[in-house]
Amino acid sequence: MFPACAYNGNRFRSVKRDYPPCFTQEEIGIDAQTLITDVVRLNEDGSGKIAVTTGDVSVPCVGVYDSINKKGYLVLTVQGDKNGNYGLGYHREDKRCIISITAPKMRNPKKYRWPFMVECNDQGADYKKGDCVEIPFQLFEFDASDMNAFYAVFFDHRKCMQMDCALAEEIPFETAYKIEEKKQNEMKWYENVGYYSPAVGEGMNWELGWIGGGMSSAALMGLGGELEYSRAIKTLDYIFNSQTECGLFPAKGGTNHETAGDFYLKGVRENWLLIRRTADLLLYALKHFYIMESKQEEIDKKYIDGTKKLADAFVALWEKYGQFGQFVDYKTGEIIVGNSASAGIAPAGLSEAYRYFQEEKYLSVAEESAQYFYDHFIMKGYTTGGPGEILQCVDSESAFGLLESFVTLYDITKNSKRLEYAKHAAYQCSSWVVPYNYHFPAYSEFGKWNVPTTGTVFANIQNKHSAPGICTLSGNSLLKLYRFTKDSRFLELLGDIARAISKCMSRADKPIYSWDVPKDASLLRDDTITAERELLPFGFICERVNMSDWESERCIGGVFNGSCWSEVSLLMTILELPSIYVDFENKNICAFDDISAELDGEKIILKNNTPYDAHISILVENEKELPMYYRKNFQNYFIQSGESLSLCKDQLKSI
Amino acid sequence: MINVKTRASEVRINEGSVQVLFQEEVFNEIITVEFIFDNIPEG
Residues in chain A with pLDDT < 50? Predict the structure, then answer.
């Protein structure tokens, strides 16, 4: 396992295909074998070699799990030295497994240059007489009864190299929200069709779920004023007006009122829908409902009936196929491509549907499908199907979706098995999260601004960038998991993820410019073409946190001029996480906002080190159950820029 | 087992790091630290 880069050595069936890859007629099917693109991998029989750089992985680490002898091995190191990134490698020689660290990186004969493996010409370094090189490492050999035990040890040690992981306090939630709200209203609201789009620009700019369609509206509904509320309602109108007979929805739409699927195979299969889109919607529709209830607003029967019809569509899929698949026909409800954890978040949606509609069948299918996902994916150490343009490459989005599902199921059923599953999913999720601050080249945009990478989340093994936030969730399942387990590592992980996002936002005091690479230049294979750098409009958060040279050396630490789903992750973070969470009983405090927080016995000491005055929120633990939407449990305070605030336990009402 | 491949004249394997000392100039050098685990069945 190379965290965020190779799982099970990426020993899957693979095809070389231009971006965005689509399945062929021969490759589709309900029980299709896992199919990945031309990424770094071993051969399917385990032979061959993996050689990457520390920029290709979330954690500079290589792990091996021996399922026969029940042993695990982990080797961790640091990013590199003055000669650049280290290399990381793995190969077998008979019964020997060899993990290697090279200084500097050495991937020859091949490296990954999106979207293919290409020839590589990495060079060694020159050393003078008297030069001394020290390569730090940590080696762990341990008993591990199964894959989850292996990941548990990884989770324990992912920060063991003690690299810098500080996240500066730059901008409070409140200020970040104001910038983002303005941008969403000015650039992502489309009056003629009536939706908050996940993308900027006329044309086919609507995508349901996944990158934010029907998700940003929940956050804006909860955090905004009357304008945002009314626009969120119109967005729900748009969504439910497009529901098909079988209860599903078109994947895409546009400002000319057109709708479309994810892909099509001409004459063979039309109307492709990445099923995770509607799994997202099931959960997010209910989030909208609870926000509306908290505002004592009436919920249109059309939304309630449509959500129930969607939940029924998932039940129908399960009853017919015993899985939800990856791509389905949104008009017929038939699975086109199966064998995936694409709908990993569906059990969460179905569990919440059970809570809302009080129909046992939803909980029953949630339980059965969660068990399916656990047995077929989590137990194997990888999950697939979250994104729609990577075939079935391993990805983080489905892993975080499953975490949401197991946590929600435990919340509702209190079945301890589900809590164990949730912990196992969280351990795997942590393999996608960067635990240290990568040293970007000084010439790069992120090098110039010293943008921290701690808490950023790699997307998948094909699109080899880390990203601000989870696609597309606040990650509050980790807060719930802390509440259920009292394991503070889950809080720490969530704190890192939450505080990383706004650091990548272009804003007046941190104007971020795009790289000088023209759009799709990476696909042109010509690194000499340049383009004018562009200022990202304020509020834009590009999904790229490029530690790898997968798009060329010039793209390391750079971004394109794009307004991406990370903005929705930020909005959901601000909606669902308090600025500060404090658990006096267990002596834990965690800042999710850019506010310094310390626990001093029965007192908390907060400091606003940002240049902005801030209204902040505090959630105080009291062991009571939290509803799905719990902002009313937040307590609000104000801290001026540069000022401190001390609050005693007695002053703070509990939840 | 840890094995270090290098053209440097001196190698020290410590707990938590490998040190490589160059007593003369070396060009285009790749230092490779190998962690070798025996008797791992395929699978």
Answer: none
